[in-house]
Amino acid sequence: MTTSPSPTPETPIVALDLLHEPGRWFRVVPAEMWSVENNLSIANMDFFEFADAADPDGVFRSFPQ
């Protein structure tokens, strides 16, 4: 039997652009997924704004303060 690591609060979720730049992606921590989903669904922000704000490791954790 194989086991996989347990998810943590930092286990990222992949966000994939299907509209403006198909195939562009970044990862987002679960605690910030609400921000991505809410802002994209009401067209308050664009995908690239989140993707460009991702950390050097490709994970969006929040916008710089």
Automatic annotation (TrEMBL):
Residues 8-63 form the DUF6924 domain. Pfam families: DUF6924 (PF21962). This is DUF6924 domain-containing protein. It comes from Micromonospora ureilytica. The lineage of its organism: Bacteria, Bacillati, Actinomycetota, Actinomycetes, Micromonosporales.
